[in-house]
Amino acid sequence: MIPEAPMSTQESAELSRFRQQVRDFIEQNADEEILEAGRKTTSFFPPFDQVMKWHRILHGQGWSAIRWPEEYGGTGWDVPRQLIFEEECRRAGVPLLLPQSIAMVGPAIIHYGTEAQKKKHLPGILAGEDFWAQGYSEPNAGSDLASLKCRADRDGDHYVINGSKTWTTYAHHANRMFLLVRTGGGAGKPQQGISFFLIEDLSDPGIDIRPIIGLDGVPEQCDVFFTDVRVPLDCCLGEENDGWSVAKYLLEHERGGGTSFATTFRHELDLIRRLAGRTGDGFGGMLADDPVFQDRYIRLALEVDTLEATEEVFASMEKGSPQSGPMSSMIKVTSMEAIQRITELAIDVAGSPSLALQLAALTVGSGVEPIGDEDALTLMPKYLNNRAASIFGGSNEIQRNIIAKSLLR
């Protein structure tokens, strides 16, 4: 039988007290609705209403932005405390906060924003009052993001936006959006002439948001269309026509700086280990004792250990440095390929009981009992969602190009 993995490091008494503080807070404040949302999370994006409720509870404790500087409302925790917090969140099964606001556009505003922009936008992000969607990809500009066509033209003291975005996660829940648009001409490199906008109101009648039903049956992504949408000039984050610099900085946080993938992946491996411990191998024994299963499981566990070590190095690096971009790309490649292999193993272990489409049982608050083992309920949606893990956030092929150009020259 494969034993449960021990803690990776021996903690000091001070860190152990901190761990207990976090554990006590979660036990006292995470209600059953929030815990159910954690159990029924099938991608990197938990059920919206419940995760935003948890976000606001954490904000009340001052813990919603564990990686932000203290001067902007962050915790000021060092890397070990950040990891302990995430370990305890995964142990308890609470949903991880949505990354678009707190882990992506928030750091970009802190780094590039004017004082007026910081004052206007950061409090709402921190408190969970605003949720920002990410307007990057377009129908003909996905991995080749620099070929985007969505355009903003100046008209007096406003820009007028026309174009579309796609694969815009949770745009149907968002009230705000950060957006890449073309504001300059096409001379020179395609990255030139792109600006980074902060759109404050998605209820504008010129904005049409249409949810996309995914392979798992859930409307997580959206198409977004802009028709003569007027926004003020001060919506531009950073310099006009230099939005690519902002976008690259933000992508470092998306690919490796927003949360610990390793902590989440260990949670998935624990679930697999539990399932294997109560699943027969077809020959009178248990699957957990099968040497082929054990080999696959241990190889994945070692991948996760290696990923955690890489994440710890990245967490101490200055974002935007020459080394941090390639490092975030390396984390993106290794983590997304690891989660694909983890979900493949999960489906192999669970077998046919994981194949049933159980949308009602996956709905928080429905009261519908799952067919079969509750631990198998989320496995097929996770598998399907993570088929795209090596594409979203910049395809792994693009990340390998970045590594080759930046490090290997």
Spans of at least 5 consecutive residues with low confidence: none
Distance between the termini: 46 Å
Radius of gyration using CA atoms only: 22 Å
Kindly estimate the percentage of residues that lie in beta strands according to DSSP: 5-15%
Structural class assignment: alpha+beta
Mean pLDDT: 91
DSSP E strands, number: 8
Output the number of helix runs.
13
Largest sheet: 4 strands, mixed
Walk across the major sheet and give the strand order: 1-4-5-8
Q: How much helix is in the residues?
A: 40-55%
Helix-strand topology string: HHHHHHEEEEEEEEHHHHHHH
Tell me the overall shape: globular
Organism: Marinobacter zhanjiangensis
Family: Belongs to the acyl-CoA dehydrogenase family.
InterPro entries: Acyl-CoA_Oxase/DH_mid-dom, Acyl-CoA_Oxase/DH_mid-dom_sf, AcylCo_DH-like_C, AcylCo_DH/oxidase_C, AcylCoA_DH/ox_N, AcylCoA_DH/ox_N_sf, AcylCoA_DH/oxidase_NM_dom_sf, Mycobact_Acyl-CoA_DH
Domain Acyl-CoA dehydrogenase/oxidase C-terminal: 241-408
